[in-house]
């Protein structure tokens, strides 16, 4: 793989630092812990690690409330420890991607401490301050993603400040050029330290309506639904003014890119397809000047049916601007885990889907061993999202439980008391046990990743949708003279594969069913939930005419 375009053809792995590996027994994962576990990522075969925020933080939102953008929280380590992590990751051939949180800071960030101190303060306009409505209430009807109004009243100066998330996370004012310059310097600070890019938090929400108009009612709202959905976010998300800012961010990372290493921007964007692909930033000259990878979360909410996924992949392929790099995400620290969403058997199929589609895959830590959501009793809840709106199933603790490494105490995660309880199955479901078991989820992930890396058709080839009938999703991946056929049975019944879809002398290159391997003899019938990647015998020797 060439150095400059690793993010197009490589695989990204997300680490939630609190939960990956604790190195000092305080029950909280840390940077030295991640460093100690890099070999797991190497043996898995991924290319880049994205770590959720590790900056100094009061931890109201576990690191997404940042009080200093240019340091490391002592709970996670030190700047020296961070440098050591970058160095060691690079020495092992891994890229390191940081989380960049431009929308808000912690209320304890010195910028906000200044801003709230007086209306005349030089940093007043770095945040979004408004007078109360005539009735003394919030300036408009905007809501916080975490419940309640997106505004909190500050007694000291008699105004409201905006917060799209917790009141402890005041929103920065990106219309202010000083804020932009300061935040670009933050990016440079980390780029100089060698990071390979950023995943940008809630990118679409960073600019708000200049007139602060009320959001309109959502016509699709159904009574009884989460009240957050009652209004559309017309005036506080995805404004046209975001795009030039994205282009500025891109120019900052491009300052640090050359023929040998390119730095990447990945955008966290929960948007409908046409809006999502706008973040590639196709300009009038046909150049993509936005984020290289606007996260594609479509699989996270998808109905688990072949026809539905087929449509979604085709629509995505059709919507991509010329030259844009596609990407796919199965899970993250905000959403239920894939193994819980679709069940353990289908999670194997999901792994094959993710690793054979056209586009950069992002894996969430623990999914490679089939970790599931862990029910957290009410008195152990950590996530403020759950605390603010209990009982709605919004809590994100279940998908953030400690990584299960071994059958040692606390699954090898910590020698202390883990900050969040472990899954009950950790004694059997862990990296060590699965490393010894050729039929395990981990073994499947390793095989699929190795296959993806070895086959240009998979990591850089084109995509062709096929029709297989039943509940089977079928497509071909074509590149460098090879054509691989992927067949995924989403159904609960056995599914015969039409012979016409198979190449001559079909050979199973991978299957989610450990028993299936080698040449296909006669008819191919997929078992329920089975997925296969089919190549053809002798292709390595190039005996087949190129396609
Ligand atoms: C993003 C993060 C989420 C966080 C929120 C506020 O959605 O992924 O974990 O709570 O932004 O920063
Ligand atoms: Ca620790």
Provide structural commentary.
The protein is globular, with a radius of gyration of 24 Å. By secondary structure, it is α/β, with parallel strands linked by helices. The longest helix is centred in the middle third of the chain and has 16 residues, at 177-192. It has three domains: 5-103 and 177-447, TIM Barrel, CATH 3.20.20.80; 110-162, Oligo-1,6-glucosidase, Domain 2 (Oligo-1,6-glucosidase, domain 2, Alpha-Beta Complex); 462-542, Immunoglobulin-like, CATH 2.60.40.1180. Helices cover 25% and strands 15% of the residues. It has 16 helices and 19 strands. The strands form four sheets. The protein has an eight-stranded parallel β-sheet with strand order 9-8-7-3-2-1-11-10. The two termini are 22 Å apart. α6 (177-192) packs parallel to α7 (242-254) and α12 runs parallel beside α15 (441-454). β7, α7 (242-254) and β8 (264-267) form a beta-alpha-beta unit. It has helices spanning 6-9, 31-36, 38-44, 79-91, 110-117, 177-192, 242-254, 273-277, 298-301, 306-319, 338-342, 344-356, 384-388, 431-435, 441-454, 456-459, and strands spanning 12-15, 48-51, 95-100, 129-130, 151-154, 159-162, 197-200, 264-267, 293-294, 327-329, 360-364, 462-467, 472-479, 482-489, 495-496, 506-511, 518-519, 525-526, 531-536. Bound molecules: alpha-D-glucopyranose and calcium ion (CA). Calcium ion (CA) binds at residues 22-24, 26, 28, 30.
